[in-house]
Design a protein that fits this description.
The structure is a single chain. This protein has 271 residues and is mainly alpha-helical. It contains 11 helices and no strands. Helix 6 packs parallel to helix 8, helix 6 runs parallel beside helix 10 and helix 7 runs parallel beside helix 9.
């Protein structure tokens, strides 16, 4: 992400970020299908061997196609370096960081506990796979288009509206029944996240420091660490429905925070 932000033309930052994020989400969607197919035909060990081969292939492609820092920046050019503390003193960066943390904390509950919830609704494993795949693939396919949109309008609106819509769809999940309704809510959740993700990446990219990309990833990872622990406690104390209700409240909290922190944000701001 940092390298893409470094080389992207300013007027096409959203397209670059969206395209790269589309690759990430397509990989996340294809991975379970590919792994399951390999496991069914060749055994569990083969799935891990395939993962190792793909990782090695990725490493080789990086060495071949990704230029060195010297080649991409020139001999005498030096990157700007900043501490995490300094990055988080920026109001916009802090707002995106907090939003990503809360969003991951809430959305992680969906991806972790949806299969358990589906068992209660007597859905099949294949139906659960279709639901999760629809969610992830819709996010992937919207990345480039929404990235292009973020280049033309203030990207904060995509982040705010997408995060709010995602929280509302998660809130509705324990109140519906049947495959079709759960699938519909996951499609809507995928659309909401498809809008929000490129907007956040464009905002961070336009602040003028590629290393800021690490901040958004760190926030998301921290949220994914907290999510299963928090959701497990909620499940034990309150029950499965409250995992989704409280998860949605976390996402909506992120929506409120990013609205407040980015209320004065203009696309031309630089870190």
């Amino acid at each position: 992400m940092a390298l893409a932000a470094d080389i992207a033309p300013k007027e096409k930052l959203g397209v670059y970020m969206g395209t790269l994020n589309m690759a990430v989400m397509l990989g996340l969607g294809i991975g379970p299908v590919l792994g399951g197919t390999i496991r069914d035909h060749f055994g569990m060990n083969a799935a891990f061997y395939a993962m190792g081969v793909l990782a090695l292939l990725t490493c080789i492609l990086v060495m071949i196609f990704i230029p060195s820092d010297y080649q991409s920046h020139g001999a005498g050019e030096r990157r700007k370096i900043s501490s995490i503390r300094k990055m988080l003193t920026n109001r916009v960066v802090l707002g995106i960081f907090i939003m990503r943390f809360f969003a991951a904390s809430g959305q992680g509950a969906v991806y972790t506990f949806l299969p358990i919830f589906a068992l209660q609704l007597k859905l099949t494993s294949s139906q659960v796979g279709v639901i999760l795949a629809a969610n992830i693939f819709i996010i992937a396919f919207l990345q480039r288009a929404c990235g292009s949109l973020a280049d033309r309008i203030n990207p904060k609106y995509l982040v705010i509206l997408g995060t709010f819509a995602s929280g509302m769809t998660v809130f509705g999940m324990p109140f519906v029944e049947g495959f079709v309704m759960i699938l519909l809510l996951n499609i809507l959740m995928g659309m909401a996240n498809g809008f929000a993700l490129p907007g956040g990446l464009v905002i961070i990219g336009k602040l003028g420091m590629a290393s800021l990309m690490t901040i958004t990833d760190a926030a998301w990872s921290l949220g994914m660490i907290v999510s299963p622990i928090l959701s497990g406690i909620i499940l034990d104390v309150f029950g499965l429905s409250y995992v989704f209700i409280i998860g949605s409240l976390l996402i909506l909290t992120g929506s409120v925070v990013v609205t407040l922190f980015l209320r004065d944000y203009q696309s031309e701001q630089v870190f």
